[in-house]
Amino acid sequence: MDVLLRALEGALAMLQPALPWLVPLLVAVAVLRFPMPGRGPGFARRDPWRTFRFGPRATVMERAARRCESAAFIAWGRCDAPATEVDHVFPWSRGGPTVESNGQALCRGHNRSKGAMRPPWWYVLGLERRRRSYFPAGADVRVFAVMSDDDRAARTVPRVPERRSRMRS
Ligand SMILES: [Zn+2]
To answer: Where is the signal peptide (predicted)?
Structure first.
């Protein structure tokens, strides 16, 4: 026990000179990584629908005019590349649902570099700010990673009913 305490004291003494910049640095990292309050999926289960298809995919692509919605650099400007995929702003693997309000059109490069990180507040705010300049009039620019009652109801019926009827005949 005594040895442990002395080791702890030693470590603290070693850290002491670094505290004036270490503490602000840790605070800054925590602030920059903080998610957008009230927009994430919370503790939702994974959406059984894994990818954007059909109507939702077309809507997300069209409202972005088929151009990548990512920033050109960190949070500035807008990427010039054509959009090739529809991505979950709040990752599907972390409970982000496959709904239009959680979708964004991305180019291949930005989709690959984004990964499965939970987007921090400045990422979401930056996306919403860019969207105000190109979204069709009346379209909601805000990101919401939650399912509506309609979204939930849609998941209780088979997604591709035609195939079923074909199999029966
Ligand atoms: Zn891009």
So the answer is: none
